[in-house]
Amino acid sequence: MATIWAVTTQLPDDLVLTPVSAQPRPLSEWLTTFHMASVVLDPYTNESSWVLKTSVRILEALRGCHARVNFIVTADADDARRFLGPIADDFLVFCDPDRTLVSALDLTAVPAFAFIRVDGAVAASAQGWNPAEWRAVADEIVKTTSWLAPTIPVAGDPVAFAGTPAQG
To answer: pTM above 0.90?
Structure first.
């Protein structure tokens, strides 16, 4: 489990993101006004289901900051909706069945938490579930957006685990 601190990844502006309920658009259009705070989940693994409730809580706490909170699900729209259930109606959800975005983020394990600045740079990311690393990503988000940091972990959050291979 590694956290990226130095900006080591610059995402291509023409990388296309496909939301569950809208037309695909290039990353540059999603970043015109807001940064992105993204939780990456693989609906075909137990590990991603273990952090789903925790991820919702973290993204809810960041909802009012100047970051577009979202889920990136490594599945098509139907499977993403099945996995997320009503959460898919409460959050922006991107589908990444070919794991193109996962690859662009240089992720090797999911679940993951990533902060993408408006310039397309990955400012911080955590792979697998490690509360201290996810808290560090959240701290980078709140430092950049002048927001309040969510508490990570809280009672009921899972214990740390490595995650599963990001490429499936």
So the answer is: yes
